[in-house]
Design a protein that fits this description.
Number of strands of chain B: 3
Order of helices and strands of chain A: HHHHHHHHH
CATH class of the largest domain in chain A: Mainly Alpha
Largest sheet of chain B: 3 strands, antiparallel
Oligomer: heterodimer
Strand content of chain B: 15-25%
Low-confidence stretches of chain A: none
Number of helices of chain A: 9
Strand content of chain A: under 5%
Shape of chain A: elongated
Helix content of chain B: 40-55%
Structural class of chain B: alpha+beta
Chain lengths: 226, 112
Amino acid sequence: MTMALDAAAVGIVEDHLARIATALGRRDAVRNDVLDELRDCLLTATEQHVASGMAPDVAARAALRDYGDLTRVAPAVVADVTATRARGTALVILGFGPIAAAVWAAAIATASPTTTAAAAPWRAAMSGFGPAVVLAAACALTAYGAASSLRRPRSRLPRAAAVAATVVSVVTDLAALAYITILVTAGGHDRWFIVLAAALVSAIRVVLVTRSARVLWARQPKAAPA
Amino acid sequence: MRAEALKGHLDGLLLAVLEAGPAHGYAVVEALRSSSGGSFDLPTGTVYPALHRLERAGLARSGWSVVAGRRRRTYELTSAGHRALADERTRWEEFAGAMSTVLQSRPQPATS
């Protein structure tokens, strides 16, 4: 059932949503989805109360009471949004991982012998490259698993693991980009399109995971009291 | 009944409500309230994070539609959700049976 509500009732609901929005931090798709869903919930509840005979503004306030005390409900909503964001970050890292690894490997393997000889001093520094990829994947899997867990819905693990996966992933990407740059500048590279693909994949991954991790990293403000 | 009393059981209750078919969040809350005869009158704000948790766990899936100019999210059970609900029912029957046995037993008079 839907009906046209008056502006006063809608305003009461929107004020409440603004307080929840403050608690959810930065604007992103996850936050917008949560707010749209809550808007539909609160307006539907208001409509039900109006249909049962309440005045629209009284109905809107009753809908907010049904929703629950914001200081008690907001932590669960924030934890929910944080888990969803952590899962998204983990998926980006895991999804791009094999692609990035394949193009890096191809770019390094197809470098000419003179180029790789010139870059030899850097090889020792890159010895941690493989373990770093494994570590990033392990952190991302932990974030994904913890965010999907039914047993620990308010665990801080998804956020911490996603942030750790992001840091390791970005450092690894930047190291790979630096190494490929050194290979190219040391003696050129016959397969420039592979180098370009590697640089592009790494750059996209760095931008995506950094953007989503910035939301996770930000300190979550508390909801303003209703 | 207070929300705390349902701690640990809310996910199973939501799966049971969604078994009847797809529903949006407020309809889930209403169904929970009506099917429990008003006993499970939860704050609606506590139900949405639980629905999202079920979705992240792969037990429910959601889709969006536009109703009266606003976006509405509707949830439905996945096949994993149906299996989880069956498991939840089995566990509950075992738990409730054991509880009943213990609570209804009367102490035997001491013999000396």
